Amino acid sequence: MKGGDALNKTVAVITPTYNRAHLLSELYDSLLNQSCFDFVWYIVDDGSTDNTEELCRGFKTDKFRIEYLRKENGGKHTALNVGIARIEAPLTFIVDSDDSLTPDAIYTIVRDWDGFKDDPEIAGISYYKLHKDGRVVGDEYPGAEIIGTYLDVRVNQNIMGDKAEVYRTDVLKTFKFPVFEGERFLSEAVVWSAISRAGYKLVYLSKGIYVCEYLNGGLTASGRKYRLQNPFGTMEHAKAFLCNEVKLILRAKYMLLYIATSFFAPVSLRETFEKIDNLKWLYVLEFIPGWLLSKYWKRKFKL
User: Lowest CB count within 10 Å: 210, 219, 231, 246, which one?
Assistant: First the structure.
């Protein structure tokens, strides 16, 4: 587990993991193959029942420091909260346990960040994720370098697909992931939206530094049913986009999601309505369509 000194490193790579021991070695190998070792690796084990702990404690290198943390199972977002609280590096890079990095990933981050680190409005950098064949995951940015908020650039311009975000650690420590008792899923977009609404911007660079493959059993593959089984987190996700910074047509879409999901949560209609700070008129307008959508989902997913 030992390696280079964790102090004075620029990047903290944080990997929440749950029963992914059979995949972690590929990420570890990609970190060993970096051209720059200005980072420390935090592995947050979210209560795995496989041999994750044994595997991680067997990772030994002098190239970089590895910190292994174990907690009770609570979901990826709770693992991120635990790990981020421990990070001292100025930048935090979330890398999933079933993914890997290109050999120049850390070097690229450190070099690019040097040009923006003195701007207090810049919260981080967003890069491309790549499929294993080199294709960009989702949509490409409309330029080589764009500076703007997450809501302006990603949401309002409808740029779809997961991206590789590197954030200032102090910003992530301020905007923690909300936790709802008994729920194990929360979209990271809840925090990205909150950071955007606070006025922080990201630098969007048309570079790929992250390689991923979506697996059966992963959060992405679980889809709608899993989100409905975590209704408060999904409602929080919808609420994150019911703000003036988001185009009205998109707010209408997320209001429908908010209403439909509320029928899967142990909460009264009055409470659901009162939690909407604005756009109550839109709630009333979309209530019946939202109720009908919830009925459809209940039949489809047998919930």
Answer: 219
Query: What are the residues facing 100 on neighbouring strands?
Result: 211
Q: Using the structure block, give the residue that is written with the tokens 């990420």.
A: 27
- Supply angle C-alpha 245, 226, 210, rounded to 5: 65
* Token representation of residue 34: 């970096």
Closest CA to 213 of 128, 105, 132, 96: 132
**Domain ranges (residues) in the chain:** 11-215, 220-301
Report the top-level CATH class of 11-215. Answer: alpha beta
Give the other-Cβ count within 10 Å of 166's Cβ.
25
Question: 194 — phi, psi (to 5°)?
Answer: -60, -40
pLDDT 10s digits, 212-264: 987 655 555 468 999 999 999 999 999 999 999 999 999 999 999 999 999 99
CB proximity list for 80: less than 8 A, separation 6 or greater: 14, 16, 44, 94, 177, 188
